[in-house]
Amino acid sequence: MKSFIPREVESLWTLFTAPIVWAVHFVVCYGAVAVYCAKTAMLGFEFSTMRIILGGFTVVALGMIVLAAYLAWRQWGFGSGDPPHDEATRQDRALFQGFATLLLSGLSFVAVVYVAIPLIFIAECQR
Amino acid sequence: MTGEGLTESCPGRCPRLCRSSVALLVIFLSSCSGSQSALDPAGPEASRVAHLFFVMLFGGAVIWVAVVAALIYASRKKNAHSEESAGRVILWCGAILPSAILCALLSYGMWLMPAIRPWVPDDQPVRRIEVTGEQFWWRVRYLDETGKTLFETANEVRIPVGEPTHFALKAADVIHSFWVPSLGGKMDMIPGRTNPLALQADREGIYNGVCAEFCGESHALMAFRVRAVAAADYEAWLSERSAETRTNGLADAEGLAVFLKNGCGACHAISGTAANGRIGPDLTAFGERNTLAAGTLPHTAEDIARFIADPAKIKPGVRMPHFGMLQEADIQRMAAFLKELK
Q1: Which side of chain A, N or C, has fewer Cβ within a 10 Å radius?
Q2: SS3 B157
Q3: Integer Cα distance of B309 and B273 in angstroms
Q4: Strand order in B187-189's β-sheet?
């Protein structure tokens, strides 16, 4: 059976996964609300619906970041070794990348939560 | 020289320092009250802004004390902590705690926001006033329920106590910002846009407002007054001012004639006369105002005469030309006439 968790790969792209999710979430949230508030009459649904949609998108984004963090944690050897991982070896390179990705994932998780907080409190468009 | 040595050599120094510090503290604290202080709120919106400030001040003070205490502890600690415990301190105090505090502050700010900036729908029957920022004064129009202008005035806004007044804020030339610290937060006035703002005063009084966005040479001389009066008095004043013609003050026919003869009516309007200019401030009830030149001078006949003779000397960049070439008697005559316009 094929595993849901991707296999371990040595690529710099995994480092950027969480920040990219954060950036996309930021742009989609701000863009969607701006368009909704400018075109409310055309869209024909309530702002609460928009909040629910973006809330769902936030959960998906957080899930992707948690998955990226888990993969980074695995790459880091589940915390078995301490940084700085600065030897010129393939293993240290992988451990360093895993640790850096884990930290970036933590930052991205907090940032996505901050971006989503206004969804709880802002209940209408104001023109 | 040590601190003890200093005290010994200047025995009176410490008491003097203490007295000076107390005097300075009193001066600083006294500036927290008054008609232009966000820390002396006179309305619900300003109260919430002040509350937010004090919460932030308290939180900031607690964090500052904790950081200084940690610094003193670290400087006095003889034996170093283990690397593991130092790592835990960095994780908790450098990442988790700041993230949690920021999250709490953001949530608190968001929770306050609807109350800080109350939204008045267009169809709700409230008092509506349109204020336009111009270099360097405020054009004020009182509107009826349909949005039609009842009358125009300048540099002074009158509102009823105990109910929200809806402001439609505009700009004629550059960006200005409308701010009455005692009543609420500021709102930018942007050319081509109408920004809404609802303010409410809970007690009668005169509150100072300022332009809070740099707008040119005399930006710092662009102030206004908000006069909060009882609702019944406001209603009576509104009815009286809405009347098309006025006679108070116009008994001075000679003053009016000098005013018209020198072309002042091309830029200024006085209801019930041939002066119907719209470029400068409406002077219909000029004598009712508390200040002259948008809060720049006291409202006396002498200062009115000074302003007529050379406005740019008092307010650099002002668009009104100087009238110093007129005979002194004419300037004095006009100043006396304007002072009595009520």
Answers
A1: N
A2: strand
A3: 23
A4: B156-160, B223-229, B205-211, B176-179, B187-189
Short-list B254, B251, B283, B249, CA closest to B266: B283
φ/ψ region of B247 (left if φ > 0, alpha if ψ in -120 to 50, else beta) reads alpha
Distance from the B277 Cα atom to the nearest Cα atom in chain A, whole angstroms: 33
Q: What is the pLDDT of residues B79-123, one digit of tens each?
A: 888 888 888 888 899 889 999 999 999 999 888 887 777 766 666
Quote the distance between the C-alpha of residue B124 and its chain's center.
Answer: 26
Q: Choose, out of B96, B105, B107, B108, the residue to mutate when testing the contact with A (most A CBs < 10 Å).
A: B107
Strands B149-154, B137-143: pairing is: antiparallel
Region B32-79+117-243: CATH code: 2.60.40.420
CATH 1.10.10.10 fits B253-339, yes or no: no
Q: Are B289 and B155 a contacting pair, CB within 8 Å?
A: yes
pLDDT tens string A70-113: 988 888 888 777 778 887 888 888 888 888 999 999 999 999 99
Cross-chain Cβ contact B110/A118 below 8 Å: yes
Beta B187-189 vs B291-292: how paired, if at all?
A: unpaired
Q: Kindly report the backbone phi and psi dihedral angles of residue A98, in degrees, each rounded to the nearest multiple of 5, phi listed first.
A: -60, -45
| Packed helices A13-38 and A47-75: angle between N→C axes, nearest 10 degrees | 180
Contact B307, B314 (CB under 8 A): yes
Q: Nearest-5° angle of CA A94, CA B88, CA B109?
A: 100
Contact present, A104 and A80 (Cβ < 8 Å): no
ipTM surpassing 0.85: no
CA distance B170 to chain A (A): 14
Burial class (CB in 10 A: 0-12, 13-18, 19+), A20: middle
Residues of B within 8 A of A114 (CB-CB) are: 102-103, 106
Whether A125 and chain B come into contact, CB under 8 Å, resolves to no
The partner residue sitting opposite A126, judged by closest CB among B102, B111, B119, is B119
A119 chain-B contacts, CB cut-off 8 A: none
Structure tokens at B303: 């200062």
Q: Estimate the crossing angle of helix B253-261 against helix B328-339, to 10 degrees.
A: 120
Which residues on chain B are in Cβ contact (under 8 Å) with A106? 95
